[in-house]
């Protein structure tokens, strides 16, 4: 077994597994030297996190270098993003298993896009690079969907777990993920795989081909294509353990929060409930047949019961995906000192998820409605001309979100050397279009017309076609009296497909110089300088704008003048919205000591950057670090940095959008269905981050290495999305008597003294503001051990992240600690306090390699808000085991390798949980912590070939 190269252990978390070598004993280890097979480049490679350090041995920042082939060996058939998220340093990353979202505002328009999140401080604070260059944003909130990266050609991934804005610019607050492309690949590679869960769903299909060759005359070319399809899991009910989990209660001593299953919406049965009039409380349990409503058990939330006739949501569990990655690259060596390249990456894909089920919310229906059975009409007094009606419309298709992405990145550049100086000139262009279509969205105007059904000439028609001919002649009357009473034609008439489109473009020009201007007594001083200009533009379109209002002409019931026409509303950005950035940066690495009594080597590193945004001002960032080689086996390092995240164009100029929600109004106790309106804020300024890291790397024995890094990150002026319906914001408003600024996040008719139902909230607001401070700290530990089992090479690796606290501080609110917490407001995902991933690789026979991966997370609280009272604020720990068998065939052609993989080998079921803010929407979201495996035991098989 070849020991791990020293530059590969400079990070505290890495997935790369030790490659078995030929026969080797513990007493005669192979020297720790990088091998071409492991990295494909000379020993001195540019290490992400610095522009002057050429070897990880002298990097003061924790850098993890991860071989792509080894990542995908542990999780074959997965995307690189899924494989990366097995590393404990990642938490809260979004993907196919994220809760479905219809507005998309929390997820950049695509709730299923793969968004990397270091330490769960937010994907917008993790900078994604490709070959050291910023990847243009692909989602409208400025985040990169990393499915854009050409997976077939990624050689390695470097992860910097510390602030490096001074080196790479805005967004690198919690770290950098740099995908390094293999620019020297020659030959052909083929990968084909498929997967299926034990229950026969969540199928996956992958096929890819890559080619590279020297074409002569200094020209090298690469090209590849990869197709991926994932069928997902369409319903939460496809896993019986989901069980419509939710949180009931008010979070007070008198009414504590309780996690409960089998929840139902009390007033919204699937067949429809009469809510007003002589027959109030009667339900159409079957089509056209009226019976008493069977109530479930009461809970601490008026709108929710356990069991009974109430309806419930059944949203998607895993999103569908179909996509194609495209890649092409040309490298031209003009001379020994001058090279040029051009590279194109494309990602064409569609993600599909299922979310809300439509409802009728206490609509008014006529006693003479043509679909109402005569025996039911007879039970109503003739003086009662209308009655109230609510229904969970399970006979209608769920709202479906199709996010169609077209992402392109073109990079080109020149690099050369003149004397002792290296220089580069680069240009990057990115264009991403995202068309999100929400189908099955209720059209309020059409719904009002279709609900008013009358008989005419022996047919049931819409009343408006008789009273106002020519106004809505295509109206199809809607029968709502029963679980499956509605016709497909009527449902199609009352629903629309709402389109929201966005286009993001980036032009990025950069130039740099690097070299060694002089030497100190301890070695050469390395320095680099760079300058850059970047322009990002954003535009959006919508087919359901806030100005699209209902026209109540001819509609005497269920129509309110001034109401939005559709259930979901998206605005449009002002024309010509853009952001221009100018940057100047410098970095220096100075050797201070060499072969001293107390230091084998000591290096100091410093970087500074001046950045000007035309939208949010001018900022200075810096980084300083020390790398101390105490002995040949013990190394210590430290960094201190000041970093920024400038507000994105979407933060500043996002168009207003709204969705219908039903949180509990704590002032009145009601849970009305009202719009939640997202708004932008043009006054936002940049976040300021301060990061400190301290670490050590110890070669405890020739075959054993340990790395330990401590970190502390504090972000001031953090850009935070505040949601008026959040219980903490409501309480802050009411305790102030209406004077708190949080009161502006809700709208109600009679101020804040009236607690009657007549004063129930009529709208909630969601805004981004610079008011919070975020602080987190923790430890990253990595242990690597190379050994032999039964005379054959083997390796073991243990990676652990300890992150006990992620503290959010906001004025006039109780401090919220999301460390070790599963759910939170604003889309905050799970942050287990302890995250562990372990690997074992062995080769029992020459042709067979066995990889075992074990993941574990600690138990978590359901909420980090200390002001909330819970009956049991705890979610159990969770662990899964995976095994991969890879067999090398000796065919003499193509080096084929067959693999068979089982994830979640023991079919572990994730523990239940839910967010208190979703308590009035049973089964819509939640049920499990983001990051836990919801598929169960999963089988994959495939073949790889290299020519």
User: Could you say what the CATH architecture of the largest domain is?
Assistant: Beta Barrel
Can you identify the CATH class of the largest domain?
A: Mainly Beta
DSSP strand content = over 45%
Low-pLDDT stretches: 1-44
Q: What's the shape?
A: globular
Report the major sheet.
Answer: 22 strands, antiparallel, barrel
Distance between the termini: 26 Å
Number of strands: 45
Overall pLDDT level: 88
Rg value: 30 Å
Work out the helicity level: under 10%
Structure description:
With 947 residues, the chain is mainly beta. The protein folds into two domains: 6-236 and 318-355 and 402-438 and 501-511 and 531-544 and 581-725 and 761-860 and 877-910 and 929-946, TonB-dependent receptor, beta-barrel domain (Maltoporin, Chain A, Beta Barrel), CATH 2.40.170.20; 241-310 and 356-395 and 439-493, no CATH class. The protein is built from ten helices and 45 strands. The chain has a 22-stranded antiparallel β-barrel. Strands 1-4-5-2-3 form a five-stranded mixed beta sheet. A four-stranded antiparallel beta sheet has the order 15-16-11-17, with no helix packed on it. The longest helix has 9 residues, at 727-735. The radius of gyration is 30 Å and the shape is globular.
């Amino acid at each position: 077994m070849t020991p791990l190269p020293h530059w590969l252990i400079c990070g505290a978390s890495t997935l790369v597994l030790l490659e078995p070598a030929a026969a080797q004993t513990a007493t005669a280890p192979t020297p720790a030297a990088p091998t071409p097979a492991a990295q494909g480049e000379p020993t001195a490679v540019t290490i992400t996190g610095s522009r002057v350090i050429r070897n990880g041995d002298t990097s003061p920042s924790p850098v993890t270098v991860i071989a792509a082939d080894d990542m995908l060996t542990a999780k074959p058939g997965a995307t690189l993003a899924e494989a990366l998220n097995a590393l404990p340093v990642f938490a809260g990353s979004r993907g196919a298993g994220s809760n479905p979202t219809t507005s998309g505002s929390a997820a950049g328009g695509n709730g299923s896009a793969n968004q990397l999140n270091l330490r769960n401080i937010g994907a917008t604070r993790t900078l994604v690079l490709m070959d050291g260059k910023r990847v243009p944003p692909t989602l409208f909130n400025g985040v990169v969907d990393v499915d854009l990266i050409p997976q077939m050609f990624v050689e390695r991934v470097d992860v910097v777990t510390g602030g490096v804005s001074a080196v790479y610019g805005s967004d690198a607050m919690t770290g950098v993920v740099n995908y390094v492309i293999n620019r020297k690949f020659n030959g052909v590679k083929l990968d084909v795989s498929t997967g299926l869960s034990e229950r026969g769903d969540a199928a996956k299909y992958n096929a890819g081909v890559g080619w590279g060759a020297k074409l002569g005359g200094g020209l090298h070319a690469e090209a590849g294509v990869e197709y991926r399809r994932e069928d997902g899991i369409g319903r939460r009910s496809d896993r019986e353990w989901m069980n419509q989990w939710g949180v009931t209660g008010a979070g007070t001593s008198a009414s504590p929060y309780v996690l409960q299953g089998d929840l139902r919406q009390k007033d919204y049965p699937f067949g429809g409930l009469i809510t007003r009039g002589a027959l109030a409380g009667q339900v159409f349990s079957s089509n056209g047949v009226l019976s008493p409503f069977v109530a479930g058990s009461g809970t601490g939330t008026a709108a929710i019961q356990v069991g009974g006739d109430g309806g419930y949501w059944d949203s998607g569990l895993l999103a569908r995906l179909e996509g194609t990655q495209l890649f092409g690259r040309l490298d031209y060596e003009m001379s020994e000192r001058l090279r040029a390249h051009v590279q194109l990456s494309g990602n064409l894909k569609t993600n599909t998820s299922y979310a809300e089920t439509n409802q009728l919310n206490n609509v008014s229906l006529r006693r003479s409605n043509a679909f109402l059975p005569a025996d039911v009409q007879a039970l109503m007094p003739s003086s009662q001309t209308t009655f109230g009606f609510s229904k969970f419309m399970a006979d209608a298709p769920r709202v479906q979100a199709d996010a169609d992405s077209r992402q392109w990145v073109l990079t080109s550049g020149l690099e050369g050397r003149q004397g002792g100086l290296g220089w580069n000139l680069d240009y990057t262009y990115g264009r991403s279009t995202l068309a999100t279509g929400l189908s099955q969205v209720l059209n309020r105007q059409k719904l009002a017309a279709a609900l008013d059904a009358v008989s005419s000439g022996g047919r049931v028609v819409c009343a408006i076609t008789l009273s106002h001919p020519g106004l809505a002649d295509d109206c199809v009357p809607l029968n709502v009296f029963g679980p499956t009473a509605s016709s497909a034609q009527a449902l199609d008439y009352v629903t629309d497909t709402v389109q929201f489109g966005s286009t993001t473009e980036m032009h990025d020009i950069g130039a740099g110089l690097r070299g060694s201007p002089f030497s100190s007594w301890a070695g050469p001083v390395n320095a680099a300088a760079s300058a850059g200009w970047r322009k990002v533009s954003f535009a959006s379109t919508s087919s359901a704008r806030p100005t699209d209002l209902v026209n109540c002409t001819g509609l005497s019931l269920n129509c309110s003048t001034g109401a939005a026409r559709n259930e979901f509303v998206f605005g449009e950005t002002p024309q010509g919205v853009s952001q221009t950035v100018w940057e100047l940066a410098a970095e220096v690495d100075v050797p201070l000591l060499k072969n001293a009594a107390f230091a084998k080597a000591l290096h100091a590193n410093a970087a500074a950057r001046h950045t000007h945004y035309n939208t949010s001002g001018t900022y200075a960032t810096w980084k300083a670090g020390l790398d101390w080689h105490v002995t040949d086996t013990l190394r210590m390092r430290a960094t201190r940095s000041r970093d920024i995240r400038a507000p994105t164009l979407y933060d500043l100029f996002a168009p207003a959008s709204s969705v219908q929600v039903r949180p509990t109004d704590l002032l009145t106790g009601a849970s009305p269905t009202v719009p939640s309106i997202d708004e932008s804020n043009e006054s936002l300024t940049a976040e300021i981050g301060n990061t400190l890291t301290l670490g050590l790397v110890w070669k405890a024995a020739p075959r054993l290495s340990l790395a330990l890094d401590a970190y502390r990150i504090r972000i001031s002026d953090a850009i935070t999305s505040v949601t008026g319906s959040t219980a903490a914001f409501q309480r802050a408003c009411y305790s102030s008597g209406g004077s708190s600024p949080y009161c502006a996040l809700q709208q109600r008719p009679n101020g804040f003294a009236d607690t009657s139902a007549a004063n129930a909230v009529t709208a909630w607001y969601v805004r981004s503001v610079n008011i919070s401070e975020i602080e987190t700290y923790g430890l990253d530990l990595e242990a690597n051990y190379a050994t032999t089992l039964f005379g054959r090479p083997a390796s073991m690796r243990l990676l652990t992240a300890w992150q006990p606290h992620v503290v959010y501080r906001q004025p006039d609110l109780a401090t919220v600690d999301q460390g070790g917490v599963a759910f939170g407001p604003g889309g905050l995902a799970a942050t287990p306090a302890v995250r562990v991933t372990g690997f074992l690789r062995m080769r029992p026979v020459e042709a067979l390699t066995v990889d075992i991966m074990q993941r574990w997370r600690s138990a978590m609280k359901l909420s980090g808000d200390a002001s909330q009272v819970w009956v049991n604020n705890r979610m159990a720990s969770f662990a899964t085991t995976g095994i991969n068998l890879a067999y090398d065939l000796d065919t003499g052609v193509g080096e084929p390798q067959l693999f068979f993989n089982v994830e979640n080998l023991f079919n572990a079921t994730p523990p239940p949980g839910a967010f208190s803010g979703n308590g009035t929407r049973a089964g819509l979201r939640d049920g499990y912590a983001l990051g836990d495996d919801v598929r169960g035991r999963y089988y994959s098989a495939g073949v790889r070939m290299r020519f």
